[in-house]
Automatic annotation (TrEMBL), chain A:
Superkingdom of this protein's organism: Bacteria
Record keywords, A-Z: Membrane, Transmembrane, Transmembrane helix
Signal sequence residues: none
Coiled-coil residues: none
Protein name: ABC-2 type transport system permease protein
Automatic annotation (TrEMBL), chain B:
The species this protein was found in: Prauserella flavalba
Name this protein carries in UniProt: ABC transporter ATP-binding protein
Disordered: annotated span: 304-369
CDD domains cross-referenced by the UniProt entry: ABC_BcrA_bacitracin_resist
Bias (Low complexity): 308-319, 347-362
Keywords on record: ATP-binding, Nucleotide-binding, Transport
PANTHER family registered for this protein in UniProt: ABC TRANSPORTER, ATP-BINDING PROTEIN
Source taxonomy: Bacteria, Bacillati, Actinomycetota, Actinomycetes, Pseudonocardiales
Chain ranges of the ABC transporter domain: 8-233
Amino acid sequence: MGNLIKAEIRKTLSTKSWWGLMIPAVLFAFLFALGWGAITNDLNDFLGSSDAEELAGLLGVQLGELPVGLLALAHGINIGTMFPVIFGVFALAGEYSKKTITTTFLTAPNRMSALSAKMFTYIGWGVVYGIIIVAFASLATVLTVDSAGLPTAGQWLGVLGAGILATTLATLFGIGVGAVWNSVTGATITLTIWMLVVENVLVFVSFGWFGITWLGGVLPNGTLNGIVGAIGAEAFGAAGVSVPGALDEDLQWLLQYTAGAPGAFSWWAAALIFLAWTMLFFIGGWAANQRRDIT
Amino acid sequence: MHDGSGRIAVQNLTKQFGAVTAVQNLSFTVEPGSVTGFLGPNGAGKTTTLRMLLGLVTPTAGTATINGRPHHQLGNPARVVGAVLENEGFHPKRTARNHLRVYAAAIGVPDQRVDEMLGLVGLSPAADRKAGGFSLGMRQRLALATALLGDPQVLVLDEPSNGLDPEGIAWLRSFLRSFAQQGRTVLVSSHLLSEVEQTIDQVVIVSAGMTRYYGPLDQLRASQRSRVLVQPADANGLVTALQEAGLHQVEPTQDGRVAVSGATVQQIGDIAAKAGIAVYGMQEEKADLEQLFFQLTSPQYGAGATAYPPQQQPYQQQQEWNAPPPGYQQPGQPPQQPYQQTPPPGFQQQPGQQPGQQPGQQQGWGGQQ
Ligand SMILES: Nc1ncnc2c1ncn2[C@@H]1O[C@H](COP(=O)(O)OP(=O)(O)OP(=O)(O)O)[C@@H](O)[C@H]1O
Ligand SMILES: [Mg+2]
């Protein structure tokens, strides 16, 4: 297994995709955190003064002391997480499209070990992506959010951990989708459209028309975003913890949405549900790979 | 674990791609110490068979083993079998050296082996160029270098001379021969008999997914129908004399000569002399091996569909071979027990054979080094 992991590391380092996707990941994470940091800095303006005051009162804090920096962090990290997903798609589907999969299978004891080596290697890559994305989102947050609105060190560490968890699972999710549907272009385009457009529309429509608040808490993009986003939402009493005198359901959803995690139950619930999505595709992809004819 | 024999065994192998039967009940074995040609026209099922042997395609029925094991049970398979396949995949943006370094790591051989193999196939000058910019012949060389990384005991090649220049073809021929002479196994596919004729000693001929002939090439060659063209003073007299002597395969040719089959030049000369007929010339004519190959494989696009029994009758195809000239078949020898090749002394695989000694390592390919 050590040999195969070494081979996988060499594979990724000898082509451009790892930094070709790292650059936009960093850029988007930085810019989104910058933008959200600028908007949410004045939560009064953003939420409307009555809602914000009601919230602050419920949480027993001054309005200006809400850790709005968490919102900026979450949005930056969430958009950046798109790229490890695509990077994961390249891992296996890329080998199919370039036909290198033939040699990969010829030099591995069996297909299962080839796939496992990929999984371990890309866990490492997911961690690298996570650290870098969180770092740039943090930088943008510090640049835009007033010091009163910055999260505590503990919250920040939580975001780092959740961010790494999210990018790692995102990478594995990408591998799984690419293993099921071994087309880089097809899988990448579909995933991008799904995660950026389709799922958001579904979540919005079901909330706006049917009052369904939980949908974002179970779908892949929602749960992936929820891992980091729920930390912010929890800090605002909009997820996980029960707030005395409970928030109005609509305000709660709005706050979750603002935190980048509409419908998220809690960060760990989001992580578990997204892990289930990852496993679903991973196992499906693994099964498809065991039998697939390489011609 | 595998038995280290270097033997390839294909048994009752069948592959169905939806409605297409690519390979139908194919059986043959390949012994170490020889180069075996795997011949058949386009679409005969050669590539599919080799890919099943290498574990890339799952057979619908039957087995294909190397060293007594299917590919996924070989342990570190690249150390047992190396493969050069058609349209081998290289990442277009990865350099030749990096490509080899990736798979050297996977196999677990030292990186120095990468440069050795690049030198062996004559790609050293192009080592740091991206494989996407390689010519067809250069890609074939890189594929061969990849196949040899693990110093395998068995080499499987699918149309390896595609795109090679004459020098490359000549080099590959001698390389494969010396590889086999070390007691290793070579199975090489081609759709042209003439292309591999000088390289191979055994041959498996397939057509429409079925075996048409397999055994030593010499046997195939020996069975060629030869005839002697005689130019006598008195053609009718000669025909009568020959028939009296018991030679009945006699027919006149358009240019007034007499074509005699089943007799040597000496025999005919003696008979003519005895009959007092002057002979002005005799010419021995051998049927082309290629023609023979064509005969064996031609039913694929002709009566093939009806002339051959359905697959549930395993061996019948043998008897139904499209009437190869007498002596071609190996009656009573089911495909599982083919011609037993006894490797010449010294060719036998030694248990302690040193890995790392590649044939022709000293003299690389092409003067490009
Ligand atoms: N993936 C596939 N799906 C459907 N049919 C296939 C597939 N691969 C091969 N075939 C069919 O199987 C048959 C055998 O193909 P194969 O590639 O094994 O032939 P071949 O002997 O290698 O031919 P060639 O000399 O042209 O390389 C052909 O009819 C081909 O169309
Ligand atoms: Mg072929």
